[in-house]
Amino acid sequence: MAQYSWFNCPENVHNQINGLLKDVKCCLKDNMVGIYLHGSLAMGCFNPEISDIDILVIIEQNLDDILEVQKKTCKKGEDINV
């Protein structure tokens, strides 16, 4: 059973996380303080068959406040996914 860290994990795992990071940065803009990889992938014991991916997102403002502003500024028909 193969175990991986961020540095040697399969390409599809990298792609999933990089896509999420791009979306989070776009959504939160200046409200994002940091994004941290946590859990098995950070500790080097990630198994793609059974492990999940743990990511912590630290924000400046209350998430409800951020979503309220986005609801007011998004074009009709756009989804807000957080």
TrEMBL record:
Entry protein name: Nucleotidyltransferase domain-containing protein
GO molecular function, one term: nucleotidyltransferase activity
Pfam family, one: NTP_transf_2
Residue span(s) of domain Polymerase nucleotidyl transferase: 32-76
Species per Swiss-Prot/TrEMBL record: Caldanaerobius fijiensis DSM 17918
SUPFAM superfamilies listed in its UniProt record: Nucleotidyltransferase
Gene3D superfamilies reported for this sequence: Beta Polymerase, domain 2 (3.30.460.10)
Keyword terms, alphabetized: Transferase
UniProt cross-references to InterPro entries, sorted A to Z: NT_sf, Polymerase_NTP_transf_dom
Lineage: Bacteria, Bacillati, Bacillota, Clostridia, Thermoanaerobacterales
Domain of life: Bacteria
